[in-house]
Amino acid sequence: MEEFQPVIVAFCCHYCAYTAADMAGSKRLHYPANVKIIRVPCTGKVSALHMMEALRKGADGVYVAGCLEGDCHFRTGNTRATKRVAYVKKLLDEIGIGGERVEMYAMSAGMGEVFARTASEFTEKIRRLGPNPARVGRDNPGCATAACS
Amino acid sequence: MITAERKPIEDLINSVSSYRRILLLGCNECVTVCSAGGRKEVALLSSALQMHFMKEGHPFEIKEITLERQCDPEYVEELVPYIDQADAVLSMACGCGVQEVARRFKEKMVLPAVNTKFMGASERQGVWAERCAGCGDCVLGSTGGVCPIARCSKQLLNGPCGGSGKGKCEVDSDIDCAWQLIWDRLKALGMTEKYEENIPAKDWRTGRGAGPRKIVREDLAS
Ligand code: SF4
Ligand code: SF4
Description:
The structure holds two protein chains of two kinds.
Chain A: E1 8-13, H1 17-26, E2 35-40, H2 48-56, E3 61-66, H3 77-94, E4 102-106, H4 112-129, H5 133-139
Parallel strand pairs in A: 1-2, 1-3, 3-4
Chain B: E1 2-6, H1 9-16, E2 21-27, H2 30-33, H3 39-56, E3 61-67, H4 73-76, H5 80-83, E4 88-91, H6 95-104, E5 109-112, E6 114-124, E7 127-132, H7 148-151, E8 168-169, E9 172-176, H8 178-188, H9 193-196
Parallel strand pairs in B: 2-3, 2-4, 4-5
Antiparallel strand pairs in B: 1-6, 6-7, 8-9
Bound molecules: iron/sulfur cluster (SF4) (2 copies).
């Protein structure tokens, strides 16, 4: 059977994680193509709804990657994002999707290796978890949800 | 503002699980400010419910509408084009909004998605606290602007009780003793003599004591 290829959405802040991704690229470090990066000005911009909608619309896992603690360019964006990720985890547990499908990571702009390793580890974790059960439901032909059309 | 809190997701899932088409309503006033039932919370709940029912393979459609105010008939009227396409309404407005929708659409099931809590103010981002109990005969002028009805656990009009300690209430050390706050404020105002005046027993008929209340402004009423 073909190996399950999860779709991963990574919200990366412009100042740290996105730059770390760039660094990983220029160092020719390998990380899975499953990870689709969305650059945000600050992880504080990522709301619970962004994470939920990414999952609802087909992602199998979502992570938010921001600056190291105390290093946020906008001072508290990353701590806010951490709280929101915790909130979404709880919500996902409550609706039976499972909170482990979202995660928060911190890295500095120079941490290309950390970026690549995080991307690989998270992808592996989601691969082990299998497809997002909401996606499984949506692929089900019996489903008449508006989102199916 | 009127404050509210979303009901546990499990309760909401149970309340809508026998329906297929849900009209999910938000309100742009108090519940938006206290982050319980505005446009954002509607979108988030919609997303969560859709995902849950997708996973269950349960056919489920949801339409999201956030009204300017759900406690005013003019705005509730805006739902007319949509109401027939829904099997039930799930409202994130306070109890007043839920009831107004239920009153207008008598044959439609209207379910509450939030627990309406109290009249309060924001203490800081993400924290709301009770401030007024709507007693109908405000005594704030005698109590330094701190409400003894809403903020004293025993609603004492002449406090504090013997349980006040280090500025905190005996009911819970997280609660400021209202009478300590009243004393502090009267001191700051240079009006400590006010504290010596006994506030007479309250006539609770202005509050809930005489049944549901109504305000009629003859100059405005149609
Ligand atoms: S005294 Fe009555 S009206 Fe005034 S704030 Fe307290 S509960 Fe509200
Ligand atoms: S400790 Fe203060 S707030 Fe608590 S019941 Fe006594 S007077 Fe009221």
